[in-house]
Records
---
Amino acid sequence: MGVTGGLLKILPNAAAFRKVDLRSFKNGIQHSTTTKEPTPLRIGVDICVWMVSADRAFGSQLGDERHFSNHGRAELLNAGETEESERERLERDLNYVNCCTEYIIRRLNALREETNVEILVVFDGATPPGKQTEVTDRRNRQAVYEQQRDEPVDTTGSREAEERRIKALRKAGASRHYAGVYTAVMEALRKERIPFLVAPYESDGQLAFLSMKKYIDLIVTEDSDLICYGASPILFKLKDSPMLEGIFEGILVCKEDLAANQGSVNLLDFSPGMLTVLFVAVGSDYSPKLDGIGIVTACKIVRKAFLSGHEDRLAMVFEGLFAAARKLSLTEEDKKVYKKKFMEALLAYRHPVIFDPVEKRCRLHGITHDGEVSETEAELLTHVPYAELVNDVKRRERITGCIQPPSLSILIAEGYVCPRTRRTRKNMTIPRNVKADLIQLGIWKDFNNPNGAETENERHDSSNSSNQVSGIKRKSLRDPRLKPCDEDSSTDSGDFLYSQPFSTRPPTNG
DNA sequence: CGTGTGAATACAT
DNA sequence: TATTCACACG
């Protein structure tokens, strides 16, 4: 996940943020000046955070409830080895998955009903190889939590130990059942006719792509990395508590907001490439940061490097950063490593692997299938080592991941194939036409019915698959509303302000 | 002045 | 547990 303080790092002046209530879009938006009829606001929801949220809400179920009360703890100690039965455990796990799923569906439906928006849910896919090291660390931490969760009840009954345990429980949460929640949510989405899409890799890049192609009008996420991808507009911090008023309020961030509010940090004249460089410089998921480089310093360095007419801007950026950094023990080797990581991060943000729902295949953002790189990247490609990285398919794939053939990509996007393992998902109803595709790809595996006979259930579902599966195929991938709305969607030339769809923007409060 | 730190607070569960 | 504040360092 993104740098949480990142939003504030970039935009320290919170007052300048626009608080927006999605209900004010009930009547749709004026999509372009040529279209008269307002159309529903199309939002892409980064569902990952909602899953985490569900996890937080129900994760404690995974532990024995008795651990939470003194009475229960005593009971456990007296009973000695009161291992819950297998049956009990399964029931509890199932209940957990159901709770999480219901939680998410409830929110999405509430959102849909109250705001009349069109929702496209976007799931995270595989972790890009370039980020793998981070994730490995995260997994180690996760393992520690799980270990703490599963360790026997502290016989001393010390409060600290118990609190630690509960905390660990919360954090470990669904990890073990995450796949279960994933498939359950996807099944539920099909049932509810809510379009969704599984990104080949990170949802950030996918959402940014959808946004830039104008397949969606607004991104709903918690991840400030989206800014780094050059996406706009973005709605952060959408309240997710069903009890409170203001569930549909969030903080809207458009490109203009990056410009206006702060004296020393004015990003108005920043190209998308510069913005990415800036984000990488202040620290990202993909690369470490230099000590002493904050938003202000980085901003100055990037501006100077890009706007002072120097050919090799990236080299200038590096120079500036190294000069400004508190150079305690910055050896040549350190610099070399830093530059390498920096460029890898840059590649990851500028050219993520995405699924194009109109072309119906994966590709690198900003790079055509013929390997032609977008004009917007010219200012970065003048740095030879970076250009080499971008143009070297093998090295590139080691960062961004591979581009799967369309047949497989579609099945991944539709949720039938796990993007990480590239195998059929367990516990998922597979319609007949999808099954045929899976067989053809040689990755079909019938988890529920090993002898291969068609069940009543399956028959039922395939008969209606033209509507249902294609819940995703029809509703989101083939939905005409997902076509680019303007012919100017190809004008990628640095303009990602996206002010057009928000011509009916509600009055700002605050 | 900007950055990095830890402590205090408000918040939600 | 996340955000905000106050302070020290360069």
---
Amino acid sequence: MVEIKDLGQHVGETVTVAGWVETTRSHGKVAFVVLRDGTGLAQCVLVKKQVSEATWEAHGLATQESAVSVTGEVRADDRAPGGYELGVTEMTVTGQAAEYPIQPKEHGVDFLLDHRHLWLRSSMQRSGLRVRAEVEQAIHDFFYGRGFVRIDTPILTGSIGEHAGTLFSTDYFGEKAYLAQTGQLYVEAACPAFRKVYCFGPTFRAEKSKTRRHLTEFWMVEPEVAFADSEDNMRLQEDFVSYLVERALERCPEELEILERDTSRIEHVKPPFPRISYTDAVTRLQAKGSEIQWGDDLGAGDEAVLTEDYDLPVFVANYPKEAKAFYMKENPEDTRTVLCDDLLAPEGYGEIIGGSQREDDLDRLLERIREEQLPEEAYSWYLDLRRYGTFPHSGFGLGVERTVAWITGRHHIRELIPFPRLMNRLFP
RNA sequence: UCCGGGGUAGCUCAGUUGGUUAGAGCAUCUGACUGUUAAUCAGAGGGUCGUGGGUUCGAGUCCCACCCCCGGAGCCA
């Protein structure tokens, strides 16, 4: 059996391909079947006089998305999508499809999400998910190439990452367990073992967010580097994000074209990215008429205003302590703030990275845990990391779906994960 | 949780100041056609107008309550 992507190497030969019917067009004595096999599309041409009765009848049974097996001669033809077509000698329907719910036309989002298991077959969805897969591979390649060790962190966890209110809880043999909302604390623990580590997996947030940027289950990659400060951290981030964009451009040009992505918007994404401090950002926003006060976290509108001046992702660094998580290191140059950064993607895609230098001083970390009224016992093992050879270290988390949404130019991140979990959607 | 929009055929939608038997396109089925590109043409079947109540001679349309969906805010990646 031949894969459709290789048809060009078999011109003049008789081959067999198998796949699913995208559309059929019948004309009485000649019929066209467009076949998708997962590697490409091929137009199959049936001429009534030249095929058996069984094969001619098979085209009538080949309803949209039926699985079929087709044998025929490969020939080059400009009229065929892809440039090659199959002059059919034999076709059999191996899995006839019932009336297919998704038609080649506009559908509502709710309907499509109800049929996500079928929607995956559509060309835009195939393209978006293929870019996702490429970006995920690029993530591994980037870190592997730089000597990082991958650490798989637990999904079921007893300790808490950041804020208790946004955790999913579940019963764990009579005890309460939480679905991880970050692997960070665990990669910090692995840092003294391997120096440079990262985790990559699903994370869970029970936030009641209904926006195009939110999922309750999303994938995050979180590197952690020993002896790296906040500046080193941002340099790693811009190198990393640039590499992901470059890989998608290099290896998914067809997918980006199907997605109608204007690639000129991302082709120049290369280090360095602009950096502004939180304090400067507030001044700038106030000059533009924002009501924001120093100490407030940046709202979605503020982020949009800040990014509109750039066509690169923008770092906003050193937020007020109160707006950020307990584990971030105090900024020695302005103790109201912490050494951290958010990376805001252009074109309104929002925050794709949150990173920071970690607090490595035991007493200050303890103080912050108490200030935030977090359960101290649950963090005893995390505090041990400061007791036994504490060291400066930094890391960040990059949201895969938001990043891929930006790279592909898709409006909503739910299209960039195979089976999105949203506030009101647990099926399929 | 708050603000805004919406729910009519399998799907996407139209439906006038309340008025006879609720429409269109696509999909499905039947027929015609030897080169289509979301083929075209002719015909057919297909409806609990989100749910419950109310006003009215008469409600898809007006009123009340509830359910569900979408978008945004907050929160975050």
---
Amino acid sequence: MNDVLSVIETCPLLEGLPGPAKLTLAEQARNRAYGAGEIIYPPGALQSSLCIIAHGRVRICASNIAGREAILAILDVGAWFGDTVFSPGMPRVFGATAHEDCQVFEIQGEVLRATLRDNPEAYPVALDQVSRRLWSAMSVIQDDVLRGTEARIGRRLLFLAQMHNHSGQDGNVAVSFALTRELLANMMGMTRQGVHRVLKNIEAQGLIEFAYGRVTISDPERLSQYVDRLD
Amino acid sequence: MNDVLSVIETCPLLEGLPGPAKLTLAEQARNRAYGAGEIIYPPGALQSSLCIIAHGRVRICASNIAGREAILAILDVGAWFGDTVFSPGMPRVFGATAHEDCQVFEIQGEVLRATLRDNPEAYPVALDQVSRRLWSAMSVIQDDVLRGTEARIGRRLLFLAQMHNHSGQDGNVAVSFALTRELLANMMGMTRQGVHRVLKNIEAQGLIEFAYGRVTISDPERLSQYVDRLD
DNA sequence: TACTGACTGTCAATTTGTTTACACTTGGCC
DNA sequence: GGCCAAGTGTAAACAAATTGACAGTCAGTA
């Protein structure tokens, strides 16, 4: 998963492109490396380019005047970010920061858009993928506005578990993954202490366990049911 | 703005389609009328179709077990909803309800997708529009997670003012529009009383005035500056 | 003009989450 | 093995928003 072509080849967003077009994109992509914590672009940036992660993880985040950070997502190898490419002129809403040392391929907006124009059969997939991101965003909004902290955290945990569970197995198999309370707090727009209290409450129901930097969902199916009963 | 063709012709999402394709779509569109409060589709619905408003206004909303309603947006004539058409199989996140008596043209997902495939020059515009919706959704998320109620409400008021201000004039001209506190509360995921307190506070700064079912932004430019200084 | 339903203002009690402060683990590294 | 930074648990004081309760206002209609 490290050279340009294989990364571009497996990126879901570009799945619809024919081989030769992917090759051309690969040739025009810019290879960039970032150290942990380095800013790839800040919120509000006006550039129009698509980034695909070749190595490491990237944090999509923003912060307010008071210095509080909000993390929208932490993306892994193979994921893309910078969907504003499709609306040139719009500033980026969230910024992107290297969550750890990482390597990113950057495709200029004009290059990408031209490639798609020349290979229109790739549009349906791209449209589908962007539309799915919109779907996810709407789910987040719904959760934020409609649900209490416990339901929100529960749902987020289930979502993260799903992300980590590429293996496809689902249901009542325990899922364990690395996640600090601090990170989760930033994802939820809460404080570390607030998250802690909620987490302890969910643990008391026997639905999760948590250790240093790690959360384990004992029975995802049951957690899901529990969460659905909350408002 | 009432017959099928003119509605489809002016819908931003379909702007890229050539005339004849629009005509074909118009012929295949289903004309539906809804009484105020009637459900067009509920949250979670699995159907895949695109709706364009020909008359009246539509509320995009969801509600939790406790009965609280969250309003994502209230769309006006000419607007479209149901972006999940581009990701068939995904359930709708929010539902759609007739906010007042209204008339809606519904285009089946398969029809729309086939039309786009046959007229690929329309894709860039569609992709741009969906991407803009994603942009808006991300802005909402950022506001929800990062900002306090006062900043959130201020920003939302400015956004609503912009919606109502097709005239293009901007800056320090007062903008007035119909909006009940109750509606605003549902939009913000707050209570009527909570909104009231915040609104009174903003009013105390001389930035807005409000009357029965109506809000007036005295000086949008100044409100914008005020809001930006808050976290 | 009186009636009515939707909308509104206000306030105390209560819930909920943040702030502040401090002591304690954990795991990697020299 | 000991050091240290990052992560964690806990709790009281505090801030902010919801709840619940009630009286008042507005605009349209009979």
